Give the backbone structure.
Amino acid sequence: MTIPTVWQLDPHTQAKHQILEEYLKAWFPILSKYNKRIMYIDGFSGPGIYKKGESGSPIIALQCLVDHSHNLCSERPNREFVFLFIEEDEERVKILSDRIEKKFPNLPQNIKIQLENGEFDTTMDPLLSELEKNGLNLAPTFTFIDPFGYGGLPFHIIRRILNFNQCEVFINFAYDSINRFIEAKDPRETTFDMFFDTQEWREIREIKEPEKRTAFLTGLYTKQLKKAAQYVRAFEMINNLNKISYYLYFASNHQKGFWEMKKAMWRVDPRGSFRFADTTDVGQRFLMSYDSEQKFKEQANLIFEKYSGKTVSFENLEQFIVDSTGYPYLWKAGLRILEKEGKITVQNRQKRMTYPPGCIISFCD
């Protein structure tokens, strides 16, 4: 299939971009507060524009920084913000360069932009190798990896990025394309070996049930990411026909980033064409409901199911919420529901219906 130089913006790409924007609004101020240099990498940047003039991910990322409500570039002049845009098509690189120049004619001096005409893996490999060879660290980096399909995305590149401190990846796992071609017995087998960093994927050939195939493929990719990152989350993107379009994977070694990404997911309301489900844990599926009352009831039920008959500290409960559920914030509303129903008692606090750090929560049987 020939991909045009500039193409139509579809709903699922728009949803990805909204999530990216929400996350970067939090990422830029958090990381630039303590680091003199931070980096955003767009591994498959495209031309930065769509058929009807909508902005692509490189422009969205730059806009997030330039228009940030905290005026980061002027308020933190001693911080350097580096953007690396990688695109294999030469014509798209030219369009992106022109687009950046027209959209941002007077960029602050502490924003540095580098456009690379090349493939993601062949561009990143020498960059990472040079750092590894000299024992140097990669600046805190957020890498957005949004390819067409599964090619050009060997897992060893992702693993090496995550090996550096404060580096995160946000990956489009093109499930539909992967599932369609994964049984081919031709040179694509080598591509899949590199994509999963294992030959275990070949077991899919014995699995015919759609749901089991989905669980196997996503479970395998999650397992591989967890070898490199402490925090991994997979978000299932479901279209209006109730079919899986793709998965978005986020991997980080920092809880704060993990928390902020889940917040970004919840802030994006895709009711028009898409909905999200948090499916990181095989066998569990947290559909992201935008009905607040329903969402809080789900939270309450999940918390009570986990801790029924137990006493737990606020800190341990919060850790469970962050690490093991799809609920990023406002989760105390679930506790208020449980307290109103007489299912919990709380010690070490001054006011009812509050759950401060240091409090102890006892759950009824």
Q: What stands out?
A: The chain has two domains: 11-287, 292-363.
